[in-house]
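anyone seen this seq b4? input:
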Amino acid sequence: MVASGPSSGSKDGVPRRRDPQPEEETEVKQEPKVEVQVEEKKEPSPKGTLLLALQRTHDKLQSPTELLKLHLKHYHMSTEQFKRRTSALKLPKEIYDKYDQITKSCVTCSKAKIALSRAKVSGIRSEAFGELTFIDHGEVPINPQSKLQFLLLYEGATSLATA
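predicted toks r here
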């Protein structure tokens, strides 16, 4: 068998790759650069720049019924917690005001006020390691004319009580 041309080395008849040819140099014309100044708006219009889904959320939260549902669904969520959870939604101030009115008019929220935080450990620190002494006082009415006053000492490490 006689080869008709240079072989690519493969026997399946695939033509050989061509070596890349050096490209001819062409003139590149540079266009003059024009600076474009972009003006930034400080306060974008709320309706024009919001996404459609976000706009629907804003429209839905305008309703006091929806805000009440949200308040009850999240176990009587406070206004501060509502603001923290919805800060990324760019809600207008009117929605926060409506939610605040709902929390103030909620019967359950008005009855159950959040209790102040209590002290973690009350007592007197001792100088020996592991000792903790609690002191308390009280009054017990015996009759309308007299009261019994007492001072209670409680040693926390050994559970020893003295009155």
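The helical segments are 46-49, 52-61, 64-73, 79-85, 93-105, 107-111. Residues 48-111 form one domain. kinda curious what u guys think
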